[in-house]
Each structure stands twice: as structure tokens, then as C-alpha cells.
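Reviewer 2 asked us to include a model.

Predict the structure of this chain.
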Amino acid sequence: RAVVCFSKAVTLQPGQVLLYVSQAEALLQLCDFHSAAGLYRRASFLQPGAFDDRLAFILYMQGQCLFDQGLFLEALQAFSCAAEVKPGCRIYEVKRLACLAALGHHDDCVQLLNDWITECPTSDLYVLRARLHKVQNKTLQCYRDVTLALQLQPACPHAAALLLQLQEASEEARLQAVVRAVRGELREALCLSSVGLQNSPEDARLYLFRYSRSVVEGDGKLLHQLTYEACFWTVGGSRSPR
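Predicted model (C-alpha cells):
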């Protein structure tokens, strides 16, 4: 009933800002975030900047409800609108990131994290980007971000747990490579050792294994590359070897 009354009042006095605000607040009691946001937009048009905080919060609530319903694209639009109303508010950007991840837009997630890390690198951001790289099977980039996270916070439990997962995957690949080598399947063994190195590029045993297999194969080009990679990681390289 209150919504109807305010609607009639707005029709009679369209220039009264408080009428839009009152109607919007009444609609919020009904959890009609979309309509409430529309009314606050009208109020903001009449008084620019006066209701930005409230409008952004309503858009945030709308996005959260949509997200909880699994409507990730619609939620992304709502959170993006909230971020436009209040630029620089990290919570809205984080929600956008969650929507992008739920939609499987991992490249967009990584780009967003790249921007945040450029502004203010933290161990949590590196771990989050490492997890995204892991989902994309970019294990070398994942390893690099984990090590950067541990450099910033040596006791970071999430980074340590992720590093352990990478090391375990590397060890499994190494053992499988040894089995293939014993069977005489040298090319398969080299492929598995490459997988191991992607997960743990500082494991000297894998370089020795690949080096010995390359000698057997007589692959001079691979020997040169292995020598370069081993030297690179020995001196603690922070970027990907060529």
C-alpha cells in the first residue's frame, strides 16, 4: 500500500527527491532491489552524488541475491553497476571476480588480479592467482605465484598447502617417468619429466633425469635448453625461462 501511495505522489510531484527515496525504501522492504535501484537512480539524477552509497549497496544486495540463485551473469551485471557507482570499492570488485570465476571466465579473473597485484601485491592475491593458473593447467605460472606469495609471507598456510600439492604432483610425474624410462619408452619419460618440472621447476633430480635421457637420445638442442633452465633456476630466476 505504501508503494502505491508513493508512486501516486511521485506522479504528482516528479521533482521531489524524497518521494523517490521513500518509495525505494518501501520496495526494499519487499526485497525488490531492481525497482529500488531504479528509483535511487532517479533520485541521484536530481541530486548527483547524494545517494551513491545507498545505490551501490542496493545493487550489491541485488547481485548477492542473484548470485545465491546461481544467476551469475545477472549478478555480474549488478556488481559491475555497483562498482561503477562507487569506483575503487574493493568488495564490489571481489564480487565481480567471484562471478567471473563461476562463469568460467578465468582469463578475465587473472586480468583483474593482475591489476590489483600491480597496485598493491599481497600474498593472498598471489595465492588466488596461483589457484586460477592451476585451474587453467598453467602449473609453471602457478608455481611462480606460490613462491612470490611465500616471499611476501613465508608462513602463509594457503601458499604452503598449494606448494605441497605441486610438489606431490611433480614427484608422481617423476616416478612415472622413471617407470617409462625403465621400459625403454624414453620420449614418454621425457614428457612426464616435463610435467614434473612444470610443477616443481627447482627440482634438480628432474633436470638430471632429462639430461641423462637426452644424452641417450642424442638430442643436442634439448641438452642446450636443459643446461639453460638448470642454470636459470639454480640462481633463483623469478620469470619464466625462455
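The domain at 1-104 is CATH 1.25.40.10 (Serine Threonine Protein Phosphatase 5, Tetratricopeptide repeat). The chain has a mean pLDDT of 83. We have added this to the supplementary material.
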